[in-house]
UniProtKB/TrEMBL annotation:
One of its GO terms (biological process) is cell wall modification. It comes from Flavobacterium petrolei. PANTHER family: ACYL-COA THIOESTER HYDROLASE YBHC-RELATED (PTHR31321), PECTINESTERASE 53-RELATED (PTHR31321:SF57). One of its GO terms (cellular component) is cell outer membrane. Pathway: Glycan metabolism; pectin degradation; 2-dehydro-3-deoxy-D-gluconate from pectin: step 1/5. It is an enzyme of class 3 (hydrolase). Keywords: Aspartyl esterase, Hydrolase, Lyase. The keyword Ribosomal protein does not apply. Residues 382-664 form the Pectinesterase catalytic domain. This is Pectinesterase. Pfam families: Pec_lyase, Pectinesterase.
Amino acid sequence: MSCFQKIIIAFVFVCTAGSGLQSQILNKNWKDIVAIDDKAWFSSTEAREIAENVLLYQRNIGGWPKNIQMQKILSEEEKQNLEALKTDPMDSTTDNGATCMEMLFLSKIYAQVPNEKYKKAFLNGLDYLLAAQYENGGWPQFYPLKKGYYSHITFNDDSIVNILEILKNLIDGTDYYSIKPSQETLLRLQKAFDKGIDCILKTQYKQNGQLTAWCAQHDEFTLLPAKARAYELPSLSGKESAKIVLLLMAIENPYKEIITAINSAVVWFEKTKITGIKEERQRVGNTKVFDKVMMKDLNAAPLWARFMELDTNTPFFCDRDGVKKGSLAEIGSERRNGYAWYTNEPKEVLKKYPLWKKTYMVSLDKSSIKNTKSSKNEWYSVVAKDGSGDYSSIQEAINDSNSFPYQRKTIFIKNGIYYEKVKIHEWNTNISLIGESKEQTIITYDDYFNKINLGKNSTFYTYTMLVEGEGFVAQNLTIQNSSGEVGQAVALTLNANKVLISNCIILGNQDTLYATGNGNKQYVKDCYIEGTTDFIFGKATVLFENCTLNSLKDSYITAAATPEDVAYGFIFKNCKLTAAPEVTAVYLGRPWRIHAKTVFLNCEMGKHIKPEGWHNWSKPEAEKTVLYAEYNCTGDGFLPKSRVTWSHQLRKSEAKKYSLENCLGSDFSNAIKAGLLESKIKY
């Protein structure tokens, strides 16, 4: 045999082997292909060809249809049809693993072939999951919503658990997904995850006052067990409940409601397990048909019914007529053999439960001891998202504080994302909220004008945090309205006197910080404040010192409403005015009310500040009544000769009047100078 013949034979062998391998892959089920644990394969041409199909099937909304074998080779006509379908969102779903499986596949291939189109599609899928979530934390089977049972909160086939596991892996920063979202997106994921867990806790069914398990579907409004297809009646599910509990058990440092949910579900699993039977397939005569039957076997592993009566836990079975039967043998062959009526999935819960209980029940006992000790100090408490403090929510700690106390109450907030509206009531005076770190102690909520929908004054209900108690202090916190650019949406409302906000990050878009109240004096120092239009507004006297004011769009920084008889409005000293890269035209302020007073002293102004500096808000009369002034500022945006003629450049003698004492009063300023308000606590 010649050398050339040997080369030809070798070439044919390699091609044949390659073709066989490709055939093996393409013959697999799509779910099995996604589960392939071969990094080298995900860098292959074959994997990339399948990835192109995955991209084609994704709708513009970000989701995918279900039950698609993505590996199937497509004709040019089929590809064109899929391109035309991209704008139709109505078959997008998370049912049967759809969307979640495609996102995992894209993540795996991106790890080997870091093409930005894979990342973009993955993040688009993530946006789809976030958009599909109900306000109560649940997810429907299809989004956009379809009529019928498709809109129910759907635990069926682990749909919601699959979503929450994606969010959890990304939040925890594991390497399971190679694509890493932005910090802003991670905040959205944390909020969505927390809401999802809250929905799980609220939908756990109570049977005679005792928590049990979950139904495959729950009504999206009442949260009660709901019907799906004719043979899927409201019931407790042995299958879906198992994955829910495993998810809850994977949460580190669970708070008491999660611990209670897990313990209750385990009791229910133990109570409802079926022993002494096993499922077998028996050939029907000489045909190729195999029938599912339940056989007695004293050594069989426990099973659980897919459907159990809500009040008695009695297993039942249904045909397509929706009539309950007491045994599998009583329903027709098509449903008997074409549906999973029993499951062994709870066995994993019972297997993992002893170690989980040893870990967290001991921790709970220790935490209870610690909480008992710390609760003796009524002037200091700890809030921790993970349940390791005295409280797991900020509002709970505030509500448990003394009214009109004679000394200061300090509430230390450990790092975490706290998705809640926080209100410091008028009677909660001398409260200090001290965060563990301003970057990682985040209070966030997402109300906005149209969502509140209470008429003309809806803006004032949109706050994430509302302060009405005199003597309030916030330190080392992020306070955020996360609703996005959707109109008026307040992050922080200060409607109290003698308020100190120190070393905080205040984030929003329009109307970020509302500082108000007749005669109220407030001090904001070393803070970062961000927004779009009028993102600092109100009628209080506020001294901002050493702050960064970051504009996110061409608009206005301030909208003061200073009363006519008040000497000082908004005063900015030693502040820095910055902007997003695309922002080029920002006004220092405009008058919400015609006696507005706003002054910038020794501030550094970026080039985004408009030369004219100030706007009259189409109120010519305000030009005679406002006090808009600057002194000794610097930067490309400080153009005193180009300012509107009705603004002022202060003389040194005039600038001296804007002292801490003059602006805020002697009592408040003396407390600030003496450091009596700022906490030195280290946890």
